[in-house]
Amino acid sequence: MKRYQSSVISDVAFLLLLIICFVCVVFTAVDPELYIQNFIFLNVAFLISVITYFSNLTVGLILNFVFIFGCGTFTLYQSIVEGVVLGGQSYFWLIITPLLTGVTWALTRANKQLQEEKEQLQRENASLATMDVNTNLKNNLSFQKDATVFMALSTRFKIPVTLLIISVRYWDEIRRMTSEEEMTSAMYDISTISQTSIRTNDSLYIFDKDNPTWGLILFTDREGANVVIDRLTQNIINLNNGEYGDKYKVELNLKIGAVEYDPESIPTPLDFIVEAKKQLEYDV
């Protein structure tokens, strides 16, 4: 409801701002004899509005008081010294300038509220999202939720669970030699290969997109994980030499670390990742 109100206020304020600007321009041009005077007042009114947009309402009101005082002094001078008869144009700018400032402030406030609500929604979406939008893989948050269940099942039913951590060897160097599109394509291809190299009851996750790192939870022991590692290695060789042989300028190679779950040494999902990454360092 609050988001809807901010949107309505923003739309109404924008329309009022257009109408006021149109009225100001017409009023400035309607009387050729006062064109210079009205043009100066018009610019001052717009200047106050711009300052209000980038500051706050208090500054805008102070500038409006100064403008009204100056405009009133000028009008009084014309009436007493020069004998000019006061007309409607003498009061127009005294009314329209504060109105223009108020509309500008309402538009600014509504837009800022919409921006804050957008940023809040983005933060909430990032904190709640369990899927990566580019690869459609589960992310780190999803892994922590799933791993808690898998670790509990392993402890209760004595089912071996092994975590594989996969990264691309020399990724920083590869990034400097290829385009961003090729890097995105490489991540997608490696994700696809990893997904096809495991059974349907195993789970694939992506932990890091900047320095691509994947995680595989396998319902097998450490020796059984070697079968998956060999399959992944062979599929990457096929990627480099097979139908994708000319797709990338450089050869892709993986670093793979694996660790079997042990309730005593791995109490949390984060510890599971840390232990698997330690094994990744030994794959040279």
From TrEMBL:
* Entry-linked Gene3D superfamilies: 3.30.70.270
Q: Which residues form a coiled coil?
A: 104-134
Domain of life, per lineage: Bacteria
Name listed for the protein in its UniProt record: GGDEF domain-containing protein
Please give the organism.
Paenibacillus anaericanus
Transmembrane residues, as ranges?
12-30, 36-54, 61-79, 91-108
- Keywords assigned by UniProt, alphabetized: Coiled coil, Membrane, Transmembrane, Transmembrane helix
